[in-house]
Design brief:
The longest helix has 11 residues. This protein has 4 helices and 6 strands, in the order βαβαβββαβα. It has about 170 residues and is an alpha+beta fold. It has a 6-stranded mixed beta sheet with strand order 2-5-4-3-1-6. It binds a DNA duplex (12 and 12 nucleotides) through loops.
DNA sequence: GCCAACGTTGGC
DNA sequence: GCCAACGTTGGC
């Protein structure tokens, strides 16, 4: 039987920032099915990436910001592509946005699933000391985007530094 | 706590 | 559309 396959899209890679007091990689591991909707993103550039660029199967580095230590703590993958963020319509949510119209949603999320925690947090300081990561967006001055693209070379180097196999 | 960098708001 | 004021992010 023939099957018309979608044009191949190479797997892409991303980094999600999160404050661990808000939601940590441990929280993702503890979530039902180790999955969560990555809700609460309220920045248009990050929204555009979530809505338009992330695809099922993409790799995600989970990074703890405003934390001690500042570090990548785990690997996740995208299990559902961009769809409206329900917390934008929930008056009880801290992320409620009264200006967002359910008929034309402003804010989007993806669903991710924990793949594996890093054996040890991979410290920002360690990343910053790595010549091959000098151009990584996370490490650029004033880099605030909470959903960032990661190149394949950066991804591979980071998993190597973390001592994690990339064959999932 | 500081403050640079960046994003958003809103008057004009 | 400009841009000053203000708010937030986030490393240090």
């Amino acid at each position: 039987m023939t099957r018309r396959s979608a044009p191949e899209r190479p797997r892409r890679y991303w980094l999600f920032k999160t404050e661990p007091g808000e939601f940590s990689f441990a929280d993702l591991l503890a979530a039902p099915r180790r999955r969560t909707g990555w809700d609460g993103v309220r920045n248009y550039q990050a929204r555009n990436l979530l809505r338009d660029e992330l695809a099922v199967g993409d790799g995600v580095l989970i990074y703890h910001s405003s934390a001690d230590p500042l570090a990548i703590t785990g690997i996740a993958r995208v299990t559902r592509a961009g769809h409206p963020d329900p917390t934008a319509f929930a008056p009880d949510s801290a992320h409620f946005d009264p200006k967002s119209d359910p008929e034309s949603p402003t804010w989007y999320q993806v669903e991710i699933e924990a793949v594996i925690p890093l054996p040890e947090p991979l410290l920002r300081a360690r990343l910053a000391a790595e010549p091959q990561l000098r151009k990584m967006m996370l490490l650029q001055r004033g880099s605030r985007l909470s959903v960032q693209p990661v190149t394949a070379a950066e991804w591979e180097r980071i998993l190597q530094l973390a001592g994690v196999r990339a064959d999932w």
